[in-house]
Every structure is written in C-alpha cells, then in structure tokens.
Amino acid sequence: MSLHGVGLSLGSTEMLDPRHLAELRRLVERYQPWVVSEHCCWGAAGGLHSNNLLPLPRTRDALDVLCAHVGQTQDALGRTIALENVSTYLEFEHAEFTEPEFLNELARRSGCHLLLDINNLYINSVNHGFDPLDYLAGIRADVIVEYHLAGYENRGHTLIDTHGAPVSEPVWALYAETLQRIGLRPTLIEWDTDVPELSVLLAEMKRAEQTIKALS
Amino acid sequence: MKDPGNVPSLAELQRRMIDTIYGSAPDAVLLNSIRTRHDLTPALLLAIYRNGTRAILMQALRISYSVIERLVGAEFFTVVATAYLDGTPSRRGNLEPYGADFGSFLDRYDPMAGLPYLGDVARLEWLVSQRQRAPVVKSLDREQLATIPHDAFAELQLALTPRAALFESHYPVFRIWQENRDRSREPVLISLEEGPDRLLIVAGDEVVVHTLSEAEYAFYASCGRGEALAEAFDAALSQDSNCDLVRVLSRALRMQALSFGTAAS
What we know:
The complex is a heterodimer. Chain A is α/β, with parallel strands linked by helices.
C-alpha cells in the first residue's frame, strides 16, 4: 500500500497545517504504507486553500520553503517521503532552475525521494515545449522510487491532467523510455474521475506489464 | 524576459495567485511574473487554475449533497453551488469539511425560498456523511449495563456515541432523504404535512436513520446535554406520561447509539 497526499501544500510560505500533519501521521501509523508521497507544489496562502496543485516558481526561495516543509513532514512521520512532479499550465519568468535541477536539489537537501509521474512529464513537455528525454537525462535516477501513469485531456492549447482517460500512446512510449533509462520501479496507474469498467482498468494494467516485459 | 525589478516575493506571489483563484482580477505584478505561452496570456493561464479549483470544490459539494442535487436537478445545483463557492473559499487542505454550512446557505438563498425544507435535507445529508467518518467506539450493551449497581442507576450518565447524532425538522426530511438517495428510484410525492421528523442517525457498517417518538427524542436530547439517566427518563415522561422507559432503553441498546458519559466512563 502507498499513501499519496494532495493537501499538505508543502511549497506554501505559510506554516504547515498541524492538524493535517497530525491526521496524516495517524494514518501512516495505522496503515504502515510502503511509500508516503506528496506533490512538489503549493496550494494555500492567506488562510485560503485552492485544493489544487499550484506551480512553484523554481527559485532558491521556493526551494528553501519546500526543503523546510519536507523536512518537517519527514520528522513528523519519522520516515522519508517521496515528492511528485506535477502537471503545470504556466511557468514563471523568474525561474532559476529547470525542473530536474530543482527536484535533484530538493532530494539532495531534504533527503526525500522522488515519484516520477510520466504523464505529468509528458504534459509539461508539450505545454512548455521541452524534450522529455532531456528531462530524463537530467533527473537523479537513484532517488526515484515510483512511477505514475494517467490520462490527460487535450484542450487544443493545453494538455490538462485529468486522471479520467486511458494512458495516451505518447505516454506509453515515454514510460518505455523511462524504464530503459532509469530502470524498473513500482508503477501506479491513476484513474479517479469518470472511472470506467474494471475490464478497462485491467487492460491498462496489462499494457503496463507488457511494456515492462518487452524490456527483458 | 520581463522587467526583473518587479519580481514579487514568494509569499506575495502566492497571496496574489490565491486571490485570483478566488475571483479577484489578477494584478500587473502577478501577470508580469508569468511567462506568456504560445498565444495564451497570463490571465488565461491563471484561469485554468481558477477553473480547476472551482471544479474540485463543485465536485466536493456534489459528493456531499447528492440528494439535494437530485431534488433540484443537476443544472440548478450547479447554479446554487456556484453561488455558494463564490462566497465560501476552502480553508483546509483536506476537502472533507468543505460544504459544512451548505444547509444554512440554502436557508438564505432567495431563489429557493419556495423550498424551505432543502436546508434541513442538506443538514441531514451532512450529518449522515460526518457520522460515517467519526471514530468508532464501543456502544453500551446489556452486559455493561448489568455491571451498574442498582443504587447508581439514576445517576448514570449516558451519551450519544461519536457515530450517532440527533436531528429534528419541521419537514418529513427522512422520507425525502430516503426516497432520493438512489438516483434510479422513481420520484414519489411526499406531503410536507408528513412532518415533523425526529431522527437518530447511527453509523455502523452503514448509516441507519431511525425515526423517534417525541419522548425518545427528549430522552436522547437529555443524554446529549450530559444529564443523568433519571433526568433523561423525566424528559421522556414529560413528553409522554405513558412512555415505556424500558422499551426506550432497550431500543437504544439495539440501535447501538449510546455509550457511557464522562462521569461513568
């Protein structure tokens, strides 16, 4: 079992919600999951929560905040957590790092692991116009503990991460590339809106297994 | 690259962005800090996040208030929920508490003035979902009750378990809720004259809503106020002097609604 959070808002400049952290700790103690993961993003400011995965400007300041909060979370839970790359629909002018640089530095400073969402990587490569293979070449493979796959919606100008569609062909291809370049990791297929018949989900799982088998 | 002199601090950027997500027009500092992508302006890119948050909060309301949605129809529910979320930003990373006061909002929402029972139906839906999430504690049983010395019985303090709740309405909310929980059920005509309702909600493996007599309701309300068993019985008798107290207590045990109160535990 793995626990995957969306609400800690690790990249917010505000202090972490102690109630949320305490609830998460109780859950972790109760279920003893294999991995606890959250997102490399922020979601709250001024006491308001977006309940959304908002993009961080990849600056030194943002890295400091994120590292402090990841450290606080790991101390509270008494274990290492994994941080996931999120889909983003905008970028900031004053970014100081590429995303692989930012995540590598986060892992080095906080000791956290990384969760590589290959759908998010593909979405961002299309939305922001970069080569996902350069990203794979730049990110530290040794700290990646899990992969995610999911479906997106193409709105013409932007790919939106929806978790409500089959994994797309380019994402399957990028998954195969990732397995070759980074190696085999436990893989979760996320599908939590417009959930289809079980047979459709099982077919997606089979496709992932076939992609892994094709490697050997 | 835009003018680097206008780079906001991280805290400032986040505050401006969350304000935009909750409806304020984005200001120049925020817009200038966002990279234009293809022909998409920063304002349009921010709108993707604004719409995303609204969709998430709307979905949370739909999940919590599926009976209300069936009663008013999906289209009107969207209108009502939009009006609610315009004035009710989320205050926690955990979405579970979002929508807690939706019933009170419906009471005040003018276009629904002709449907005065909706607020109570919403409060009942909320109570049902909240009881399911409450901690599980062992409810009082006959064996435990038998351990109480006879002379301590009158002073015994009982309380509703965290997974039980009382609810009272002028309207027949139990039938309205029951008939509309399942979307595939044919609509039925319910007269508002069938009310009032006095209900006890108990979450076990599933949530059961029990209808109570006036005397039973008074008994549980007294327990809920922390009063001793003798007072709770008096409260029941004050509503119905012929009330069978043994039956009231036996039913409470069967419904697994009570536990020892603070003084007895």
